[in-house]
Design goal:
Helices cover 38% and strands 13% of the residues. The protein is α/β, with parallel strands linked by helices. It has a 6-stranded mixed β-sheet with strand order 3-6-9-12-14-15. A 5-stranded parallel β-sheet has the order 1-4-7-10-13. A 4-stranded parallel β-sheet has the order 2-5-8-11, with no helix packed on it. A hairpin with a 4-residue loop joins strand 14 and strand 15. The radius of gyration is 26 Å and the shape is elongated. One of its GO terms (biological process) is cysteine biosynthetic process from serine.
């Protein structure tokens, strides 16, 4: 029994630096209590003892704040960290070594019978407050950012963020760095909060910065083409003024700063 507990919950030491001992994990981690109760309720559910299974699931929800339908299939070494507010639907299927944080919902988008909840591959990590809805599949090693809403399949190893979720594209890192440099020049600090902020003003300025980059690339290409044909154009673009040089310190405009 002790060996099985170590195999099942030893992974918590790797995923939670706050964990100190097996005794602490067994006695103080609500995610562990919820999963242990689910193992029993799931067996009762498979034996067609639906009411005892649902009642035990209800007890688990009352004790831990984690609601797991007894019909849900959960693999080995799954870790529900903090756990409060987690909801896992009847037809959800969670693979081995997955990690769910508090506020996660694996829900359905239909009232019809049958498969209506997500399927998670091995090693999937879902951030706090994320909602994964419908009979979709998250491939092995997929990552879901906090507070994201996922409605479509996620490929193995991919990372998705936002509402609705979209895949983070690693090929855009260079372009994002260029946009950030321009944003720093003009004092636009939305990226300081998050690159995927759902603020319409921030998004509008983001598109404007991307448009400026495209125009700059086109002007440079035109200059190169004209120089190849012997046309020398010496029209340097004005330098971008650093936003810090434009700031007015209190009292410099002649008004009392108070």
């Amino acid at each position: 029994m002790l060996k099985k507990i170590k195999d099942e919950f030893g992974c918590i030491f790797e995923r939670d630096p706050a964990a100190q001992s097996y005794f602490e994990i067994i006695t103080c981690y609500p995610g562990v209590h919820a999963l242990l109760l689910h193992r029993v309720s799931h067996r009762l559910w498979n034996l067609r003892l639906s009411w005892p299974a649902r009642f035990l699931s209800h007890i688990g929800r009352w004790l831990t704040g984690i609601e797991i339908h007894p019909g849900a299939k959960i693999g080995c070494r799954v870790f529900i960290d903090h756990g409060m507010g987690v909801v896992i639907g009847e037809t959800a299927d969670i693979g081995d070594d997955c990690t769910l944080y508090h506020g996660v919902t694996l829900g359905g988008t239909s009232w019809k019978k049958g498969k209506r909840h997500p399927t998670l591959g091995k090693g999937v990590v879902i951030g706090a407050g994320a909602k994964v809805l419908g009979p979709i599949t998250l491939g092995d090693g997929a990552r879901v950012g906090s507070n994201s809403v996922v409605l479509k399949n996620v490929p193995a190893g991919a990372t998705v963020v936002g509402i609705p979720s979209h895949r983070v594209n690693p090929d855009r890192k260079v372009q994002d760095a260029q946009r950030q440099a321009i944003a720093d020049k003009i004092g636009f600090e939305a990226y300081g909060m998050t690159a995927d902020i759902s603020d319409p003003v921030a998004n509008a300025i983001d598109h404007l910065l991307e448009h400026i980059l495209k125009l700059k690339e086109q002007v440079e290409a035109m200059q190169e083409a004209m120089q190849e044909h012997g046309i020398d154009i010496n029209m340097p673009l004005p330098q971008q003024q650093d936003w810090a040089d434009c700031r007015v310190e209190p009292g410099e405009d002649g008004r009392n700063s108070g």
